[in-house]
Design goal:
single chain, 233 residues, mainly alpha, flat
Length: 233
């Protein structure tokens, strides 16, 4: 049990780092907003699995380098508050890494989206619906990003530990909705709903979230996923 608690704590520490970077770094907020926008845009195109993988990897690379840059800057500021040429070099090199990752993201976006940017791309809506796995994963990722962003604005809790809204409830509701849309089977949808309700109940019974936080999280996950699937159905 202690090992499980340590594992959960390690995840919470990691999310605290993400939230700190998102709250304190203007560029990190920009990266998050652009990532959400690009993921939404990707739903309008018939991307291959390789392109989706490249898109996720590129977004992750930009966010990771920005967090490493933040970590380096914070460490240097902890060591000294005076000008030093080596401190300047360290910060510039870290900032350069972010710039390279951002330029790489621009190139990837150009290669993936540019040749598809024409009026005929509206017809890909039908083809996107025929590849629900892409819609499902993008919807789920959007739910996670929105939950993190909302928690940063409200400044309460982490995605795995309390706060408004409940991240577990949002993800559970999103998965229930996606499973129902993809399976188009009442029995499968009902079983998915029962699993989601168990998640809701466990968050309340464990006193990790209030009923209102769970309701808001569930509503957020449900709403985002339903909107995405309704648009592309």
């Amino acid at each position: 049990m202690n090992q499980v608690r340590k594992l959960i704590d390690s995840f919470n520490y990691a999310f605290e780092g993400i939230l700190y970077a998102l709250k304190t770094q203007r560029n990190m907020k920009i990266h998050f907003l652009i990532a959400i926008g690009v993921l939404i845009l990707s739903l309008f195109f018939d991307l291959t699995r390789a392109e989706v993988l490249l898109l996720f990897s590129t977004i992750s690379l930009v966010i990771i380098t920005e967090m490493i840059n933040t970590s380096i800057e914070t460490t240097i500021d902890l060591i000294t508050d005076q000008y030093h040429v080596f401190a300047k070099i360290a910060k510039n090199v870290a900032a350069g890494a972010v710039l390279i990752a951002a330029l790489n993201a621009i190139v990837v976006a150009y290669l993936i989206f540019f040749h598809r940017m024409n009026p005929a791309t509206l017809m890909v809506l039908d083809r996107v619906r025929q590849a629900p796995i892409h819609v499902t994963f993008i919807a789920l990722l959007l739910v996670v990003l929105v939950v993190i962003f909302v928690k940063v604005q409200i400044d309460r809790g982490t995605p795995l530990k309390g706060g408004m809204p409940s991240g577990h409830a949002a993800v559970a509701a999103s998965l229930f909705t996606a499973i129902t849309f993809v399976s188009e089977n009442i029995l499968v949808g009902t079983l998915a709903l029962l699993m989601a309700l168990l998640v809701f109940q466990s968050r309340i019974e464990g006193k990790i979230h209030s009923p209102f936080e769970v309701i808001v999280g569930a509503g957020l996950g449900l709403m985002i996923t339903v909107i995405i699937f309704q648009i592309f159905s």
